[in-house]
Amino acid sequence: MKLRLLSIPMLLGSLAVIGCQTPPGYQAMNSNREAVTRPEQVVDFETLYAHNCAGCHGEHGQNGAAIALANPVYLAMASEADLKRIISGGVQGTAMPAFAKSAGGMLTDQQIDALVQGMEKSWSNASQLGEVKPPAYASTSKGDAAHGQAAYGTYCGRCHGSDGAGIADKHIGSIVDPTYLALVSDQGLRSVIISGQPVQGMPDWKSAKVGDATHVLTDQEITDIVAWLASHRVETPGQVYQH
User: Fold this and answer.
1) Is the pTM value of this prediction over 0.85?
2) Are 153 and 160 in contact (CB under 8 A)?
3) pLDDT tens-digit profile of 109-166?
4) For the chain, how many structural domains are there in total?
5) Containing H/E element for 208?
6) 25 within a domain of the structure (yes/no)
7) Which of 14, 86, 216, 242 has the greatest number of beta carbons closer than 10 A?
8) CA nearest 134: which of 88, 60, 82, 99?
9) Where is the Cytochrome c domain positioned along the sequence (predicted)?
10) Co-location of 116 and 162 in the same domain
11) Together in a domain, 109 and 156
């Protein structure tokens, strides 16, 4: 039997054709590699919120351990600059961490912008506020704890108890407990008083009740109430014995 030898040109041509053929599955693998998005490239609001915020602020901005973000009053009170500053640098002394890479976090400035813009687009609603605008985000005056105690008793005691220790029958816990106060800043207390907690039935600053009447809390009343609450903080919260 004679073997048929290929000529050099024919052999080279055959190798060239084989070499140009794509191995099975290679194109799909390469396509998948190109589709991979690096963490710092994610700018989708829902994805960023779910991975960075939902654990504390709730799946849809509500019903979390921290303040509700899906609250038009809160978003009207806190400016975009306030939100960016809080997300970027966190809140010292609380469980709110810094998320900006420049502060040791994992998010880029573009991602923080996407979070802020997503909150505004998804949850802000100026029409719910009416003509009464919320007080400034941060207090501009010094609070008086004695006046705050009186204001608290008038506007808050019916739900939180006359001494702030809560009402067991209503399943409302203490808001003067040192452990709770160690986890929330003065600004956090102010924000909750102004924006309320609609899902839990807590009214905002313009819907405080005095009997059957509605009262709009003044900026100073809010500042004084925060001062009274803050006066219940201790240096070593949660410790039974002091050393």
Assistant:
1) no
2) no
3) 999 999 999 999 999 998 888 788 999 999 999 999 999 999 999 999 999 999 999 9
4) 2
5) strand 208-210
6) no
7) 86
8) 82
9) 34-123, 143-233
10) no
11) no
